[in-house]
Amino acid sequence: MALMLVGYAVVLLGLAIRAARRTRSLADYAVGSQGFPAIAVGLSLAASVTSAATFVINPGFVALYGWSAFLAMSVILPIGLIGSLIVLTRSFRRYGTHVRALTLAQWMQKRYHSEALGRWFAVLSLLLLTFVVLICVGLTKVIASALSISEFPVLVGLVVFVFGYMMFGGANSMVYTNAVQAVLMLIVAVLMLSSGWQHWAGGWDAFWAKVAAIDPLLTQPTNPKSALFRDWFEVAFCNFVVGVAVVCQPHIVTRSLLLRDERDVSRYLLVGIVAEVVFFAVLFTGFYARLTFPDVTGANGAALPMDGIIPAYVVQVFPVGASLVVVLGLLSAGLSTLEGLIQSLSTTLTADLIGPWLGKRWPLSGAQQARLNRAVIAALAGVAIIWSHQQLVRPNLSVAILAQNGVYAFFSAAFMPVLFGIFFPKTPSQAVWAASVIAVVVHFTVYYGGLTTYTSGVVRNPAVAASLAILSSVAAGALATWLVSRTLLFASKTETTS
Distance (Å, rounded) from C-alpha 106 to C-alpha 113? Predict the structure, then answer.
């Protein structure tokens, strides 16, 4: 296992060093020094959307809560996500390419002609650090479990290595490392989905009977005893809304800007969507894990934490040779998204927040911006180590709750501006400000204020807070757009009369 990890690290370093030779500016780092083939970018999209959460964390929800969790996270949420990708991608890319936007914050700034709005979304992007923490925690647990060593040194080594090579390659290396990682993930997805073949003796009815024998609620579409899937509102409505809006994360929605040509968009979407469907199916492995650990305890009799169920299952079920491949695929699932987050988050902070502030005092060349970006990545690495260690020691049910809270707040604020910016060209910046600020306020007020029965327990559901925030945001944006247009119309008539 150690030799395999070293070999994998050498390959990633080789790609990063090769790409660094073509990365001379922040623009090269953000979107690459040249366009990329549709298949490579499509695989990169699928790998970036799918993280350690899909392969390591979320199957643990299925193991604990059954069909309700699978239906919500592997069926309904992907339907919303895929539909949103199809609807938004082409128009977002067309405008982003036209104005040469490197980040989502720049897209907002240029679309609505507001530097302040760009800076606002650059600040909001810090919420995505919660997703970085989730991936670091998930990968740390997989590696520590596979090597049978303590978690903290694994965490430090992982963060230093990944953040270190991401300082140099950027998009030029990320697209190709993501493509390689996506192929490995596809192989591992097949291995994990076929790992419970022995449970299928007797067909679907027999399989379902085994699951029901552990707990009948595991076979139901809603699970009143669960923390996040108690009724159809949580299972269906909230997850569909979240799926539609989740595309508005910078490492997802900006991926189409890496394509060579507009004609490549259809092939890019086809490759990405097919791979995504396979990846989301991996959550079914949670049922195999529950059948393997019916009382959710490990080999030593100790209770398995939710985030540790799948790592324990992999070590328990797979022979040594296969477990090497599976661990490599699980690492790929996390690294692919982690690379995208590091690239998009550091570029946003450098190009839209820190760089402009420094540039007003000391004009920065392209090379100086690239060096500043590396310093930003180093700072993010320090935050990731401290926060991830805290989540390893004291999680609230799962690190996924922390990540969902932060990420959901971000795309709740970004959804209406992206949607209206694409389909309603005359949307005023005042409406975007109103919509995004209200989304953030509603999300955190509902979540931390315990304003609903879904967000008032020990474990609160971030999807409910996000759904209410998104609906409030769209309503506020539409109302503000109407009010501004009426005000301008009234002012125009008054001027004409006078």
Answer: 10
